Amino acid sequence: MRIGVDYYPEHWDRALWEQDADLMQKTGVKLVRLAEFAWCRLEPREGEFDFAWLDEAIDLFAKRDIGVVLCTPTSCPPLWLYEKYPDAVMVEKDGQPTRTGIRGHRCINHPAVIENSRRIIEAMTKRYGQCDAVKAWQIDNELEAYFCFCERCNGKFRKWLKNKHGSLEAINRAHGNVVWSNEYSSWEQIQPPYGHYADAWMNPAYMLDYSRFASDNVIEFSNWQAALIRENSPGKPVTTNVWYSGHMPDFYREFATLDFMAYDNYPVTRLPDDPEECFSHAFHLDMMRGVKRKPFWVMEQLSGGMGCWAPMSRTTSPGMVKGYALQAFAHGADTVLHFRWRTANIGAEMHWHGLIDASNVPGRRFEEFADLCRTARALEDVRGAEIRADVAILISFDSEYAFKIQPQTEGYYYFEQPQRLHRAFTALGLNVDVIGQHEDLSGYRVVCAPELYVTDPAVSERLHAFAEQGGTVILTTRSGVKDMNNNIIMDQLPTVYRDMVGAVVAEYNPIGADTVPVRFEDGAVINGRQWCDILEPEGAEVVARYDADFYRGKAAVTRNAFGKGVVWYVGTVGRQALYDKIALATVREAGLDYVPDLPPQVEVTTRVADSKTFRFVFNHADAPQRFRFEGRELTLAPFEMKVLKPTDR
Ligand code: GAL
User: Fold this and answer.
1) Which of 356, 467, 469, 594 gets the highest tally of CB atoms within 10 A of its CB?
2) Which is the closest atom of ligand 1 to the Cα of 243?
3) pLDDT exceeds 70 at position 22
């Protein structure tokens, strides 16, 4: 397990560099990430490079056996570029150019941005591509699928549509443009979703294509950089860092050409009062591991209270700096870099807390970090250890985009049900894979495929085959609603899944913030929220029924024997207890080994290397917990992780 830090030599007095590097070495830091925003210091004037300071910094770390992750600085072109090419900035939704002064305001399709990016990347990779100290490359920083509304991007969107659909007639058909007389008769009529009105007023079919284009657009930029880096730095791993944001590119496509997945992990420092809230970052961590189905890196890890542009969050409670990093290891990371070494004392990110305060006096958080470094050293044999899971949850970026475009009902958002299912299965001490909907399902016993709203026939076929061969599939509300164009499939819900489910949605009720009691056959009553599919069984057994409204007594949850397997359908969005109940029933039925009676907020994950099994037991609560685990008494402090090695058994 490797620990590193994100470091900005260009922000600090040179006199500090050596001190910092010495302290890093002494503490056990193995990697530093450098230069992602340093373009103005690397190329202070167009075509004039200054690598002396970076040479010096890299050298300083290399001498202390600290490797470097070097970044392409393309997120922040220097101001000379914007001065020369004022239209190189992104254009906002209202058609106005973005103002410079923050970061990431470049249009990645502007020829000057591309040419200047090429030049700086070539210069950097020629200089450092073969350098031993450079262990990996990071492309740009947190590339998001942002929409730029400039004419170039618009032209690219038209081209993208042409490539995909072929002709205006085909686009008109696919987007249903006859509605509101929006049929195109020339390519120039195709516009991005400009305007002050909400995207919700735009045609959902068009908007889904636009979201896919925005994702593809940024992925193309990333792929282009990856190829460029590899020309001069063959064999060095290349990645980019992402976060769980409102504008995620399709990670499965984005990382297909990159060597490893890197995630920016900022768990909350204040746990929500309502235990119902899905607060564990375990879902995100499992999702990031699932992108390449391989160990991943955390490129930025929480180091203190978050702040700067928003009011500051609480500081990290004792245990969080270390515990959250170990939680990432438990879920499949093998390298974690902390953001940041020291709190900034200049610039926009002042008050975003690093491991060391701006005073440069190492304190409580730093001591905890030093302790993490010692623990990570002791966990060296876990590096590369696999996480094997019997349970998988499928994710679809098409559905994520489509639900953003049409949010269905008050409070409804795509990731709630995947997260609740994840929480339900992990509460049983099981490893859970969160993977792309196109992944191979062999090896799994239970596959949750919540809200497959945009229907890809290949996915539905794979799910049919999986159940037929003996697997358990869990489907939910809003399955099979749309076709690949994001138009409604003209069939009764859940359309392509109807035979598997063994029930049909006779009617639905989007109840938003209201609730409806759902009564299980065993008498348990759990509230349904947001959505009620009123199910008519066609062979399925009824597991739970609504207990109110005009559909009292109608089926809410069903279970159907299909082929050699079983298919569940959850027709409402429940409180956590609903998913807990279904997870337990499916796990028992599938005969999986699980950990009964884990206290809430205790997570158990298992990593396997050769014949060694490592159990990670994490207390995610801000209070100590004492409980029996596999025949022994365990006491965990708040945010404490215990790693039980096989020898401990
Ligand atoms: C990340 C970003 C960093 C820094 C950090 C804290 O999203 O990549 O550069 O801004 O947030 O603000």
Assistant:
1) 467
2) 7
3) yes
- Tell me the pLDDT tens digit for each residue of 617-636: 999 999 999 999 988 999 99
> Rounded to an integer, what distance in angstroms lies between the CA atom of residue 622 and that of residue 548?
38
CA-CA distance, 171 to 175, in Å (whole number)?
Answer: 6
Is the predicted pLDDT of residue 277 greater than 80, yes or no? Answer: no
In a 13 Å sphere around the CA of 77, the CA atoms on its Cβ side amount to 28
Distance between CA 630 and CA 628 in Å, rounded? 7
Are 575 and 545 in contact, with CB atoms under 8 Å apart? no
Average pLDDT over residues 332-361: 96
Element (H, E) at 219: helix 204-232
The pair phi, psi for residue 139, each rounded to 5°, is -85, 125
- Whether the upstream peptide bond of residue 510 has omega within 30° of 0, thus cis, is no
Ligand 1 centroid to Cα of residue 268, in Å, is 15
Total Cβ atoms within 10 A of residue 536? 14
Q: From the alpha carbon of 36, which atom of ligand 1 is closest?
A: 9
What are the structure tokens assigned to 338, written together? 């902390």
Q: What is the DSSP letter of 423?
A: H
Cβ contact 203:174 at 8 Å: no
Q: What is the pLDDT of residues 39-70, one digit of tens each?
A: 999 999 999 999 999 999 999 999 999 999 99
Name the residue with the closest Cα to ligand 1, atom 5: 339
3-state DSSP helix/strand/coil % of the chain, to nearest 5: 35, 25, 40
Domains and CATH numbers, the chain: 2-86+102-144+218-381 (3.20.20.80), 391-590 (3.40.50.880), 602-648 (no CATH)
Please state, for a pLDDT cut of 70, what percent of the chain lies above it: 99
Is the pLDDT at 197 greater than 80, yes or no?
Answer: no
Is 0.90 topped by the overall pTM? yes
d(CA 75, CA 52): 22
Is residue 122 annotated as part of the catalytic site, yes or no?
Answer: no
CA 326 to chain centre: 18
Higher-confidence residue of 647 and 187: namely 187
Query: Would strands 134-139 and 67-71 be described as parallel, antiparallel, or unpaired?
Result: parallel
Q: Which residues line ligand 1 (CB under 6 A)?
A: 141-142, 243, 264, 300, 339, 349, 352
Whose tokens are 């010692």? That residue is 374
| 211-220, 221-230, 280-289, range with the lowest pLDDT | 280-289
| Residue 571, pLDDT score | 98
The closest of 95, 93, 97 to 82, measured between CA atoms, is: 97
Q: Report the residue among 6, 10, 142, 243 best suited for mutation to probe ligand 1: largest number of ligand atoms under 8 A from its CB.
A: 142
Report phi then psi at 246, rounded to 5: -80, -5
pLDDT value for 649: 45
Tokens, residue 556: 């809410």
Is the predicted pLDDT of residue 646 greater than 80, yes or no?
no
What separation in Å is there between the alpha carbon of 596 and the centre of ligand 1? 39
Residue 300 designated active-site: yes
The alpha helices in 406-559, defined as continuous H runs, are 416-426, 457-468, 498-501
Contact indicator for 614, 647 with CB cutoff of 8 Å = no
Pairing of strands 641-644, 632-636: unpaired
Q: Would you place residue 275 in the very low, low, confident or very high pLDDT band (cuts 50, 70, 90)?
A: confident
Among candidate residues 122, 142, 144, 386, the one labeled active-site is: 142
